[in-house]
Design a protein that fits this description.
Blueprint lengths: L10 H9 L2 E2 L3 H9 L1 H8 L4 E6 L4 E6 L3 H4 L12 H19 L7 E4 H9 L8 H17 L3 E3 L10 E4 L3 H4 L2 H14 L5
Antiparallel strand pairs: 1-3, 2-3, 4-6, 5-6
InterPro entries: JetB
Pfam family, one: DUF4194
Length: 195
Amino acid sequence: MTTTTKLLPYTAVLIKLLKGPVEYFEKGNWEKLLRYKNELQAFLLPLGLTLVLDEEDGYAFVKHALPEEEEANISWVQRRTLTYEESILLVLLREMMAEFETGEATTRELIRKRREIKEHAELFFKENASRVKFMKEIDRLIDKAEESGFLYREEPHEIPDEQRFRICKIIKARISTEVLDDFYRQLQQAVPQES
């Protein structure tokens, strides 16, 4: 005798959230997320999770709702430690987002070519002896940012440096303006003052 279990109407979007962020351009999932946001939050809280939803910027993700000491024992959400260089690139992408939003943007999304991201990053990374190696390292950091969900590759381009990426707005939730300000304070302290 088989019994059929009726799935919750938000099961698909819940599974997607547990794997990573959901953004507004994922129409079906986004509409379900907005429709069932209260039910999702009520389902997640007893599991030690909370739904972070920014309707204006169009992204949502799940994070731990437990204090850090309890969180170490229970981990639903995949965490990954970033290297120093990966962190710097994310701060630079966040800076690009801040400039875009305070400027006179005519579009909702910030799209940049790989070449433009590399040019911006070059100012902050110390170039090693080999320029080719240095550029490969920046390319690797860009690929890591894409893999982590902070960059989204637009339609493929045959010239790698002309490849366009959308800088995902979720970066604002991960790197706050306070983190940006702290980064600039540290930069100013690192630069020797002229006497």
